[in-house]
Amino acid sequence: MLQIVFNALSAAELSQLDTLSQLELLNEFKVDESTLADLPARHAFGKIEREGRVLYRYRARDYRLYFEVRDGQVVVHRVLHKNTLDDFLFRSNLPLSEDEAAGKSKTFWKLIDEGEKSGRSSQP
């Protein structure tokens, strides 16, 4: 199991959830190297790539966690309600999968960059 680290922005987004939802989400979010190596078989996970950068998406209930693996840690950049990206994709009329569309979206990468710039905050 990799250590999970939330940056300040993703920790703030997580803290907006009620305590029970936070606990359920964190209980479900288990990541290790074998999980990421076998993504096609893992429906809750997705992979987003752009210009050599790789992010992962984890779907849990009504939320999406966007993270990358860095130095043996899972760094969570954003915790977003599922309708945030769904609404974006609907309005954009992109004929791609959710992960492909996110990878091509400047708006998506701006959200990730905001989370990354917020710095590291907490660990579960």
Average pLDDT over all residues: 79
Largest sheet, order of strands side by side? 2-3-4-5-1-6
Bulk shape: globular
Beta fraction: 25-35%
| Tally of separate domains | 1
CATH class placement: Alpha Beta
Roughly how many Å apart are the termini?
13 Å
Would you give the CATH topology? Answer: YaeB-like fold
State Rg. 14 Å
Task: Summarize this entry quickly.
This protein is an alpha+beta fold. The protein has helices at residues 8-15, 19-28, 33-37, 82-92, 98-104, 106-117, and strands spanning 3-7, 45-50, 53-60, 63-70, 73-81, 120-122. Strand 4 (63-70) and strand 5 form a beta hairpin.
Key terms:
124 residues; alpha+beta; YaeB-like fold; 6-stranded mixed beta sheet
Structure description:
It is built from 6 helices and 6 strands; from the N terminus they run E-H-H-H-E-E-E-E-H-H-H-E. By secondary structure, it is an alpha+beta fold. The chain has a single domain (3-122), classed as RelE-like (YaeB-like fold, 2-Layer Sandwich). The chain is globular and about 35 Å long.
